[in-house]
Amino acid sequence: MTPDQTFAIVNPLAALSWLALIVVPRRAAIVTGLVVPVLFAVLYAALIGMYWGGARGGFSSLPAVAQLFANPWLLLAGWVHYLCFDLLVGTWEVQDAQARGIPHLLVVPCLVLTFLFGPAGWVLYKGLASVHSRSQA
């Protein structure tokens, strides 16, 4: 299997997980907060285990990171890392919103932003949770 073929599997799996998190949040949590992240974490660990040794580059500078990610397998590992952690953050947002009584429709834009731009969606959710908490006080 090539990096492109693997990418073609993990990307739709992530997208379907996000769709489930948006459409059926209470039912999706076991899949989005455990099953898919475990699959992604295992894939990530396997990719790092197989391709890290002897890889050029590193994390000491931006050019070193660029050199590291010039290897398509390590670039894929980085992408899977993002997919995994962003999905975990999105699942946390849904679960936290449910615990706080925040209507799910208000959380959906945060989820979309988290899916597309990770930390920006989390910041939006934290703002929403803060405003909601103040309005409940």
What would you say this structure looks like, in words?
- The protein has one domain (3-136).
- Helix content is 85%, strand content 0%.
- The protein has helices at residues 3-23, 25-51, 62-68, 72-100, 104-117, 119-136.
- It is built from 6 helices and no strands.
- With 137 residues, it is mostly helical.
- The model has no long low-confidence stretch (mean pLDDT 96).
Task: Tell me the distance between the termini.
Answer: 55 Å
Order of helices and strands: HHHHHH
Largest sheet descriptor: none
Structural class: mainly alpha
Number of strands: 0
In the predicted model, the low-confidence regions spanning at least 5 consecutive residues are: none
Shape: elongated
Give the helix/strand layout.
Blueprint: H1 3-23, H2 25-51, H3 62-68, H4 72-100, H5 104-117, H6 119-136
In short:
The protein is mainly α and 137 residues long. The chain is built from 6 helices and no strands. The chain is elongated.
Label this structure with key terms:
137 residues
